[in-house]
Amino acid sequence: MKINNMTSRNGNKVANQFIVHTPEATFFQSYNSIIVKTTFEDGQRVVYLDEYFWNYSRTTSKYRSLFLGENTQETKDNIKSGKYKLTNLN
Predict the structure, then answer these.
(1) Side-chain-facing half-sphere of 49: CA atoms under 13 Å
(2) Per-residue pLDDT averaged across 46-58, rounded?
(3) pTM > 0.90: yes or no
(4) Are the C-beta atoms of residues 48 and 28 closer than 8 Å to each other?
(5) How high is the pLDDT of residue 61?
(6) Cα separation of 26 and 38, whole Å?
(7) Per-residue DSSP letters for 60-78?
(8) CB–CB of 50/89 below 8 Å?
(9) Edge to edge, what strands does the sheet with 13-21 contain?
């Protein structure tokens, strides 16, 4: 397992925002909560979002968006379309 602080757009380490790499998945953690889990299944990226915390605060949303490379509306659209799965990650 490898854990790194996220970095801001200007390259500074961000406190309490982490990317966690394991052999099975990559996670975005905000404070003590797992927000996103990404895996590869059959060669396709699969994204799981915590059903409660995925859009918990402005800070969580900001760094979740940075982690996923999209804005909140795009994340909502991906949830609605079924591309992203809501689940309990905590």
Answers:
(1) 23
(2) 96
(3) yes
(4) no
(5) 95
(6) 5
(7) HHHHHHHHHTS-HHHHHHH
(8) yes
(9) 2-7, 13-21, 26-30, 33-41, 44-50, 84-87
What is the C-alpha separation between 76 and 50, in angstroms, rounded?
13
Q: Tell me the pLDDT band of 10, cut-offs 50, 70 and 90.
A: confident
Q: Mean of the pLDDT values across residues 23-27?
A: 96
Amino acid letter, 48 = Y
How many residues are given for the chain? 90
> Measured at the alpha carbon of residue 3, what is the angle toward residues 25 and 48, in degrees to the nearest 5?
30
Q: Name the token pair of 77.
A: 């659209």
Position 85 scores a pLDDT of: 97
71 token code pair? 């804005």
Q: Which two tokens stand for residue 57?
A: 């605060």
pLDDT at residue 90 is higher than 90: yes
Q: How far apart are CA 32 and CA 34, in angstroms?
A: 7
